[in-house]
Automatic annotation (TrEMBL):
Catalyzes the 2-beta-hydroxylation of several biologically active gibberellins, leading to the homeostatic regulation of their endogenous level. Catabolism of gibberellins (GAs) plays a central role in plant development. Converts GA9/GA20 to GA51/GA29 and GA4/GA1 to GA34/GA8. Residues 348-404 are annotated as: Disordered. Its EC number is 1.14.11.13. This is gibberellin 2beta-dioxygenase. Belongs to the iron/ascorbate-dependent oxidoreductase family. GA2OX subfamily. SUPFAM superfamilies: Clavaminate synthase-like, P-loop containing nucleoside triphosphate hydrolases.
Length: 711
């Protein structure tokens, strides 16, 4: 049996789940009394991680009684309810809901499945209520234990799990860490125009959860394609949700389901969730009967108490299982190995050149040419013989990685190695039109200390931090590539995605490892593109900031300070379009702050002559007009303008071809005509500058903080 659920009409850009075209979603409805219920349960867990249960054996009068008693408790004066708060974690609690805590609030009761083990806060829950409330809670939790055990027994039987009761035993034993939560979403003062997120998207950490609510809507689940669907409420049935622990024990065969609650009605909502969890000391790992080979396990072993503790330390919507997943081994690409050995590896001995035409015997991975010198890419040790019988006698100049204190740190270093620029970007200073001041300052700050190191010591120690700032599209990244080309240093091209990790604590480690690698391969340049995305102003008055973001920024500032105390030539070159967003402490460490302005007339003329050269025999192009009418255009804007002009003759050619009924063979296609002066006029009317309105902000920042023009 299935029920059809329609996709949710709720849409919010606060969530990044992909949306798909609306289509009915079939949610399984499983009758526990049917003979094939176990097969249906396994199929539902694999497909949705969620299903509806009917004929469950729980008395309707018990459900009604418990709901009524819960409503009576939540209707008590706050002075009485507060005696059971704050939860420890059991007891009574309240919480603001919504992404910013502005949608409303909920109140809840959290109770240990074994009420005898409850704290004094648990006792306080029943202190001002009739005994019937406690009796109803106790009977309800017995029924939930029975139902959760039955569902897990059916899973065991269908999957042929050995030993028997491997799963169900975990929720049957007295030590089971199961709990019951009753949520109350009070009536809203006014009905919202559209549905708003109340309780954010999340998965449950336990084995399974048994959910029941009154007839108020609000529950949504996320299906495989990322669509959120509304779950039609049914006060007489239960919904079963697969939890993270069951996902691990089935090695990912079952998926814990993402769900959330939205608010769209003035009616209050009551829900009761029984979380069936294992004992705190229980070791959680993929079951050996489901994963014969240890190498096929997707998760490391952990105890339920460890996982529970990690869940409390993370945000509601975080992917908690990531901390316990086995990471695939990292393998360096042949491209990087070739690049590395070309730059730092063993050099080929002169006598080997005489046999360079001999066939390869497999003892090396091949040769590359760098700066006209042949370099052998070999991973062999110093006693390995080559095809010609010679022996490599020279030791490697540097190891690929510095010594690290753990394999985890080395893995992070290997991932960062992808951001080393491999090969020459081939951007020369003369390729960049204009920006003479920026080029002079960059040469003085980066190129000269490498070229003439004798002069740069003591007070003249090279600047370790350089900031390129200016409007978008003015050539900041081009200047960085020119530095990589001209300086021949190890160049780390870093963006926010390179150093921000979903793993807790890894972002700070990535920053530290990045600077360790840069010092190891000195002289080196770390280019931080769009640095405002990494270290904007830290939290202060009127600002909120996640702890992980603050730790990353602090580590970056510490590492920047460390560069001042080392003799290795490591430069930090940063670029941003929003210099005023940078933290003041980072501005202090970026000692040289260079404005990359909009191009002046001479620079614009050079760009137009390079992109739109006048062809012999054709009508000369009005470069003077272009220079005059492109005031305020950035380098990127000028390129778009030239592209638009070049499209005009192509459009004329395509119009002729489209009018023909027959298909023209490729070899008979006509040539594109020349660019005409009127094409320039049309291109000017079709394009607009993108950054000129904010140019004065960069000038003001340059007056306040910038390195001024060299005389």
């Amino acid at each position: 049996m299935v029920i059809v659920l329609q996709p949710s009409t709720f849409d919010s850009n606060l969530y990044v789940n992909p949306k798909c075209k609306p289509s009915p979603v079939l949610i399984p409805v499983i009758d526990l009394t049917e003979s094939d219920a176990k097969t249906q349960i396994v199929k539902a867990c694999e497909e949705f991680g969620f299903f509806k249960v009917i004929n469950h054996g729980v008395r309707p009068d018990l459900l009604s009684q418990l709901e009524q008693e819960a409503i009576k408790f939540f209707a008590l004066p706050h002075s009485l309810k507060d005696k059971a708060s704050p939860p420890d974690p059991f007891g009574y609690g309240t919480k603001r809901i919504g992404p910013n805590g502005d949608v409303g609030w909920l109140e809840y009761i959290l109770l240990n499945a074994n009420l005898c083990l409850g704290s004094h806060k648990t006792t306080a829950v029943f202190r001002h209520t009739p005994a019937i409330f406690r009796e109803a809670v106790e009977e309800y939790m017995k029924e939930m234990k029975r139902m959760s055990s039955k569902v897990l027994e059916m899973v065991e039987e269908e999957l042929k799990i050995e030993p028997k009761e491997k799963l169900s035993h975990l929720v049957k034993v007295k030590e089971s860490d199961s709990c019951l939560r009753m949520n109350h979403y009070p009536e809203k003062e006014k009905t919202p125009v559209k549905k708003e997120i109340g309780f954010g998207e999340h998965t449950d950490p336990q084995l399974i959860s048994l959910l029941r609510s009154n007839d108020s809507e609000g529950l949504q689940i996320c299906v495989k394609d990322g669509t959120w669907v509304d779950v039609t409420p049914d006060h007489s049935s239960f919904f079963v949700l697969v939890g993270d622990t069951l996902q691990v024990m089935t090695n990912g065969r079952f998926k814990s389901v993402k769900h959330r609650v939205v608010t769209s009605t003035k009616r209050s909502r009551i829900s009761m969730i029984y979380f069936a969890g294992p004992p705190l000391s229980e070791k959680i790992a993929p079951l050996s009967c489901l994963v014969p080979k240890q190498d096929d396990c997707l998760y490391n072993e952990f105890t339920w108490s460890q996982y529970k503790l990690s869940a409390y330390k993370t945000k509601l919507g975080d992917y908690r299982l990531g901390l316990f997943e086995k990471r695939p081994p990292f393998s360096l690409s042949n491209e990087f190995k070739t690049f590395y050995d070309a730059k730092f590896g063993r050099k080929k001995l002169p006598e080997e050149d005489s046999n360079k035409d001999q066939p390869d015997d497999g003892s090396s991975n091949g040769d590359v040419n760098t700066n006209s010198s042949q370099v052998t890419n070999s991973a062999q040790d110093g006693n390995t013989g080559l095809a010609n019988g010679n022996v490599i006698r020279e030791k490697p100049k540097k190891s690929m990685f510095p010594p690290f204190d753990s394999a985890e740190t080395r893995t992070l270093a290997e991932s960062l190695s992808r951001d080393i620029i491999r090969g020459n970007p081939n951007i020369k200073w003369e390729s960049i039109k204009g920006l003479e001041n920026a080029k002079k300052l960059l040469k003085e700050a980066v190129v000269m200390p490498i070229k003439y190191p004798t002069y740069f010591n003591g007070l003249l120690t090279p600047w370790k931090g350089i900031l390129l700032f200016g409007p978008p599209g003015t050539g900041k990244t081009m200047l960085a590539k020119a530095v990589a080309t001209e300086c021949n240093t190890t160049f780390f091209n870093i963006s926010a995605s390179s150093v921000v990790s979903k793993w807790r604590g890894d972002s700070e480690k990535l920053i530290r490892v990045l600077f360790d690698l840069a010092r190891h391969h000195a002289p080196s340049t770390i280019f931080l593109d769009e640095i405002d995305a990494i270290i904007s102003q830290r939290g202060g008055e009127g600002r909120s900031e996640h702890e992980a973001s603050r730790r990353l920024k602090t580590e970056l500032l510490i590492q920047m300070d460390g560069l001042q105390k080392t003799n290795e030539l490591v430069f930090v070159l940063a670029a941003t379009n929003l210099p005023w967003e940078l933290d003041a402490a980072m501005l202090r460490r970026l000692e040289k702050r260079i404005l990359v302005p909009l191009p002046d007339p001479e620079a614009r003329r050079g760009m137009f002559e390079m992109l739109l050269p006048s062809q012999p025999g054709d009508e000369p192009l009005p470069h003077d007009v272009l220079v005059e009418k492109s005031e305020g255009y950035s380098g990127s804007d000028i390129r778009i303008l030239c592209k638009e002009a070049a499209m005009q003759p192509l459009r004329r050619t395509l119009a002729i071809l489209e009018d023909r009924e027959d298909v023209v063979p490729e070899e008979e296609l006509p040539k594109i005509g020349p660019i005409l002066p009127e094409d320039i006029d049309r291109a000017l009317s079709n394009t607009r500058p993108s950054a000129h309105l904010h140019a004065h902000l960069y000038d003001k920042f340059n007056d306040d903080y910038g390195s001024q023009i060299l005389k």
